[in-house]
Give the backbone structure.
Amino acid sequence: MGADLLLDVLKRAGAKGAREADGYLVEERSFSAVVRLGQVETVTHSQDQRLSLRVFVGRATAAASTSDLSRESLERLIDDATSLARVTAEDPLAGLPDPATLIGTVPDLDLVDRRGHDQTPEEKIAIARRAEEAALAVDPRITNSEGAEFVDRRSTYTYATSHGFSASYEASTFALTATPVASANGEMQRDTWYSTARKRARLDSPDEVGRTAAHRALRRLGARQVKTAEVPVVFDPETAASLVGAVASAASGPALYRGSSFLLNRLGQRVASPMVTIVDDGTRPGGLGSKPFDGEGLSVERRTVVGAGTLDSYLLDTYSARKLGLASTHHASRTGSGVGVATTNLALRPGDASPAELIRSVRSGFYVTELIGFGVSFVTGDYSRGAVGSWIENGELAYPVEEVTIAGNLLEMLDRVDGVGNDLVLRDVTSSPTVKVARMVVAGH
Amino acid sequence: MLPERFFSDRFALSPSLLDRVLGTALRGRVDDADIYLEYRVNEELLLEEGAVKKASRHVSQGAGVRAQSQTRTGYAHTDEISLPNLEEAARSARAIADRAAASGSVAVAPGRPSRDLYALDVPPIAADLTAKLDLLRRVDAEARAADPRVSQVIATLASEEVILYIATAAGWTAGDVRPLTRLNVTVIAEEGGTRELGTYGGGGRVPFDYFLDADRWRRFTGEAVRQAVLKLRAVGAPAGTMTVVLGPGWPGILLHEAVGHGLEGDFNRKGVSAFSGRLGQKVASELVSVVDDGTLPNRRGSLNIDDEGTPTGRNVLIEQGVLCGYMQDRLNARLMGMSATGNGRRESFAYPPMPRMTNTFMMAGQDAPEDIIRSVKRGLYAVAFGGGQVDITSGKFVFSASEAYLVEDGRIGAPVKGATLIGSGPEVLTRVSRVGHDLKLDEGIGTCGKDGQSVPVGVGLPTVRIDGVTVGGTQL
């Protein structure tokens, strides 16, 4: 039904002067329950839809979107897009991908859990309540809670072009989060743990989510600042994943053709230690970031971004690929204002060392478990972020640390990776095992 | 156009019909309930490589129905505004709130604001498109002419209009029409294989002509170029704890992160903020007074009414170092036995409101800014920042300097590369030792994120000296 609506809109856009056009329709229904200290705090039922249209008038392009799918509103959408395209500049590279390259058969990537959604609100609330109870039961020092949340969402994505192509897929998402607060001696610390999956049965149990969250909050109690020093830094899997994400941001087409990436002109060159291999694989059945096709109808593939330290591929949509004289890597994503680039299931491949071995190899250094702030420049790679974690003394975690920063440059940090853990778990769209960087500056007192 | 008329014309939803939905489904069964209707149009124009190559326009509309009993909130929203959908949403919302016994208190009608802080003859969304495109092209030419090292210019002009209408179970209604616009200039400068980025911008609830008045667009462009070129010769930032002087204006993001979020009512009602239970206590140097003021005309963070219909106000958060107020929405105010302060905000109809900041700033002090810099033996002078973040429970915050200089023997020295400043919210303001007389509000660029919801905000600061802030640089 969504495809027919889109194709009709695209046909009408053609009648209003669009040389070619494509459209993307997202329809979502979601439910969220937040329980705090055993009481239901917020329950939200949502129903959302958004139709976005991109038109090419001559060689100029514009986009419009609406959440109102009435006939009058869609007429206005077409008028908005075509009239905007008449005032934007001609760009010889603007246009849709070659129709012959669009996906043929849409593979079933096992992204839907039909029966997973068959739960009453009470049952969903009970999942959040159990996670919070588990957190509160871990230790008397868990004294408060920001609550636990259960979310389930069902989405349908439909893509169509003015050449008559259309394809769609559905996906389910389930997520459970707990955020307990630990306190002792007048100090308060909170932390979060979560599980997210395409299948409800694949979520970690509420007990496990709650207990892990509690242990994470507890281990922060008694945290202190350390002296400023240049030391080895070990990133836990959660924080290491943010480094992997930073590489992807710098490797994305729009950042490259705008000249705002530290990976510009580095394709085929060594950009990291040979221990670093980063793969984006959107074809993994049931994967959280999996999808059969990208935001331009091109089939999603498995692709090595960094192979044993060498930058093997950029991440490109059709336009940025043409700008760089390359082919799309099928990473187009639909954003509100048009087409961008996004990864699917992005992961740093695991190494041989256990996390304990990596920590044991450090005489004096910093084990990072949380990063805050936005101090990363994708233009230069300069990196400076607030960090929380534990100090490593003689190969052991000695005491919790907070109110420090870690700083360096991403290219230097990637080059200095001298340990990659064997503990990769694909628990989010971007994942990593434990990573050790030989040295960085930790700023404290 | 009046919001009431707009929704009744467009969706055939008259106030009496809304009242009927609230009445049958919700009245008498819950403590508080409301229907929030929203219609939003956004326009984004983007120039890169010397041409406006991207233009887009987005329309979103929807309704949120909320029912509250004690601490419970039932919220349902739909992007199809129709009577049957509202009735269904009301039933869903009630199903949750219903299970707690209502306390019987009813939300009292707030007074209506007598002023309109942003009535515009021509709102920015309706301004002439060719004039907008022309402005972006002038920005590009200006930036490239300013310095030969400029290799890329990205200029964006965003305009928005939100029409909203709120009907409550207590029988009162409120509406608002909110214009918003922002011009942003990003420049990449290149020299000998080194690239650096500079960015500057501004705006507010102002007409498009605001950018042309007093050649503001030219100043924004010049600042972006100056920043990018300056960074080409920046040295690594120092690492460690030192005296930091913050310049006036946007560095007020310090207040937003260090104390602002920690003073939002929800965190304090739950007792999870580093400032929980500290009303009446000294949390800052006596030189420090901090205000959240949603009533400043045409400011990005200003609102006539908040997203629950409460008129915004000027709320003193810290007076001469003493914590004296939280920012509240209706729910948290009711649960804490306090008054709603006009800080109940939401990103859109898709979210229930929560306590948020508007324009948060520190009051001016006595000192001349030059004297403050002169008083520093060795330290950092930071005048521009990127984003910041805070852990409201531990109170630790960070924010990243995008333009900063070393200070030695009272003189401003070499520019340093982006450094992150980190500190503890309840402590950092106790170390403020000088406050300048040069209070400045930011240019109108701030967007604050909380629980996945973004809202436009403002900040402001006079020049301040803080003794002992950890600077996250690379130079030992």
Chain A has a mean pLDDT of 96. Chain A touches chain B through 81 residues (CB under 8 Å). Residues 71-87 of chain A form the longest helix (17 residues).
